[in-house]
Amino acid sequence: MSTSRGTSPRASPSSRAAAIGTIRRSLAPPGGVLQPILRTVNLTKYHRRTLAVVSLNLELYPGEIYGLVGPNGAGKTTVIRLLTGLSFPSKGRVEVLGQDIHRSAPRAMADIGAVVEAPATFYPFLTGRQNLELLAGLSGGVRAGRIERVLDEVQLKSQADRRTGEYSLGMKQRLGLAGAIVAEPALLILDEPTSGMDPEGIDLVYEVLHRAAERGAAILLSTHHLPEAARNCTKVGILDQGKLIDQIDLAGKRGAAILIRVDRNAEARALLDTEPAVKRSAIHPEGVLIDITEESRLPEVVQVLVASGFRVSAVGPERFDLLGYFRKRVKELV
Amino acid sequence: MFRLLSLELRKIFQLWSVRASLTALAVLPLVVVFAADDFGQTGVVIVNAAQVAGASLVGVMQTLIYIMVAAAAAELVAGESVQGTLRTLLLRPITRASLISAKLVAAALFPFLGLGLMLFSSLVLGGISRGFGALPAGSGTVVGPGGWVGLGQTIPIAEALREVAFSYSLAAFAMIPVAFLAVLLAVITMNAGVSALGAYALIGFMGLGAFFPAIRDVLLTSHTGLWYREGGGGLGLSLGALAIYTAGLAIASVLSFDRKDL
Predict the structure, then answer these.
(1) What residue of B is the nearest CA neighbor of A87?
(2) Residue B143 contacts residue B229 (beta carbons within 8 Å)
(3) Would you give the DSSP letter of residue A30?
(4) Closest Cα to residue A88, out of B254, B86, B256, B94?
């Protein structure tokens, strides 16, 4: 299996959604309801007398990429540490595939791959490969050749025999991701997995995460970078002062409409309304939103606009303005 | 558990406190060898390698070894917490008890390793400078009150070496609860400096208990000097007390770590 970025392009949102649908159907018991991979029930944490996490209820299903966003001090890291069993809840519980993570820790941890430090931490006197072998050995049941495949996937094969003490921040992050996925866990939990990385590194991280999600893993990650979350997550939870103030299903919002960036929005819309391929249209601050009968007819629609003298600068799926929404919600709370 | 233990043993040589301690312990006998003239002025004559080893042990057991053992044990736990690798390990399907147990075993081995190195260094340096002859005026004990200073009857070198090795073993054994006390404090505070100094301060504080006969026998510090006893009086009692402290501190460390937020 080739895992290089050049030969394994990232799936489009619509194909990802289809793949996730397939995974969900395959994992659901016949005639039954799909069970979440991760479930928290009234998860609450006090730091001395301060309430750090307030009655958090989360559910993550196979194929989902859940982004936990929030301002500094919102409690993201505390939540991540509770979910990975590093910290103990004052109330409530965390279940991974039905097992309480704090009561049956070693068994439940076998289903989790996680990075909770940014950058990920390793033994500096060991090489990247040795660190990965150590983690794989502690996880147990890692298939032969898996370490090489994972190193290839995170593009560290050529650097694998260098001591991690010599690694750059981005390389440590990628090795951290390799350590998280090496045992092919059902659940990935990552605290700021792209922190301090360059744009190429960030793309690589999300490619790896999307591939894991397509295989059926559920992924929870925290990030400060809202456009990144909007592009890559299927669901986003906004955390503020330890409370989950909102959850947005981005999979439902993304790709439902097509945004055409064009000059003279009103006139363009009037023209588009006459096109049989366009079911509905609407004015958007950045252009015209259309709902189309068949995706294959999009070039034809764009051609009509261009032929009529409109300047079309971009065409693509409508992206949810998470940053704008986040600002609005936080403002409302203040 | 074996994988964790081998990792801890490999890791211990990477710690700065351990490297510095091992270097100091290897070099210390050199001080004894070169200070022989000063010993001579006080009427003490260092005549063979066994005496160099005995004198080195007496020197290091006053203060230095407590600090070294506490620092190494504290860094094994708290240093790794600061570095972040403790969490990296705990994200794997291992029990917290197995991880802290591996650290306790590594911490317990350090005094044997350090004192073993010092014994070896003493015998090499002492052998080169003083040879392996019998004590001309030994007291019957090489290590112990008035022993290594060379008063009393003559003892052959083989017996002297046996005695020195036994004293080194007892000294290393006496340091295990000190190491475990530092591990316990490191689990509680997750701060290597505070834990090492805290363990040393607690040992010093317990030492004051010697002035209170009612509690003297239950204090750890009343038994850490078992390596120094002439004729081995009360050895069984002290070994038992040290074993109880060792077990108690190990259990406390495991239980504290098991519910520790990291």
Answers:
(1) B261
(2) no
(3) T
(4) B256
User: Is there a contact between B84 and A137 if contact means CB atoms under 8 Å apart?
Assistant: no
Q: Per CB distance under 8 Å, which residues of A are interface residues toward B?
A: 81, 84-88, 105-107, 109-110, 112-117, 120-123, 125, 134-135, 137-140, 179
Q: What is the ipTM of this complex?
A: 0.81
Report the amino acid identity of residue A81: R
Domains parsed from chain A with CATH numbers: 13-252 (3.40.50.300), 258-318 (3.30.70)
The C-alpha atoms of residue A185 and residue B228 are separated, in whole angstroms, by 56
CB proximity list for A83: less than 8 A, separation 6 or greater: A38, A40, A94, A101, A189, A220
Closest CA to B6 of A159, A81, A138: A138
Residues of A in Cβ contact (< 8 Å) with B4 = 138
Place of tokens 């070896």: B120
Quote the tokens at residue A328.
């609005």
Interface touch B91/A114, C-beta < 8 Å: yes
In sequence order, which residues have a C-beta less than 8 Å from that of residue B231 and are 6 or more positions away?
Answer: B141, B144
- Give the best residue of B83, B88, B98, B261 to mutate against chain A (max A CB count within 10 A): B88
- Give the integer Cα–Cα distance in Å for A173 and A156: 11
Residue of chain B with shortest Cα separation from A185: B92
**Residue of A15, A62, A67 whose CA lies nearest to A34:** A62
Q: Which of B86, B91, B95, B100 would best serve as a mutation to test chain A binding (most A beta carbons within 10 A)?
A: B91
**CA B37 to chain CA mean position, Å:** 28
Q: A234-275 pLDDT, tens per residue? A: 999 999 888 998 888 876 665 557 888 888 888 898 898 898
Q: What is the pLDDT along chain B (262 residues), one digit of tens a residue?
A: 788 999 999 899 988 899 999 999 999 999 888 876 555 555 566 778 888 888 899 889 888 999 999 999 999 999 999 988 999 999 999 999 999 999 999 999 999 999 999 999 999 998 898 888 766 544 434 555 444 544 445 677 887 788 889 889 999 999 999 999 999 999 999 999 999 999 999 999 998 887 888 888 889 988 888 887 655 567 888 899 999 999 999 999 999 999 999 8
Q: Within a 10 A sphere around the Cβ of A223, how many other Cβ atoms?
A: 22
**Cα angle: B143, vertex B148, B153; to 5 degrees:** 105
How many residues in total does chain B contain? 262
Mutate to test the interface with A, among B89, B92, B255 (most CBs of A within 10 A): B92
Chain A contacts of B87, Cβ < 8 Å?
86, 116-117, 121
Instruction: Confirm if A67 and A229 have CB atoms less than 8 A apart.
Output: yes
B89·A125 Cβ contact <8 A: no
Give the closest-approach CA distance of A5 to chain B in angstroms. 27
Q: Which of B85, B94, B262 sits opposite A138 (nearest CB)?
A: B94
C-alpha A284, offset from chain centre = 26
Q: A173 forms bridges with which residues in the sheet? A: none
Give whole-number Cα distances, B37 to A137, B43, B259, in Å: 56, 10, 56
Could you tell me the pTM of the whole model?
0.81
> Among A186, A218, A223, A189, which residue's Cα sits nearest to residue A87?
A189
How far is Cα B209 from Cα A277, in angstroms, rounded to an integer?
Answer: 92
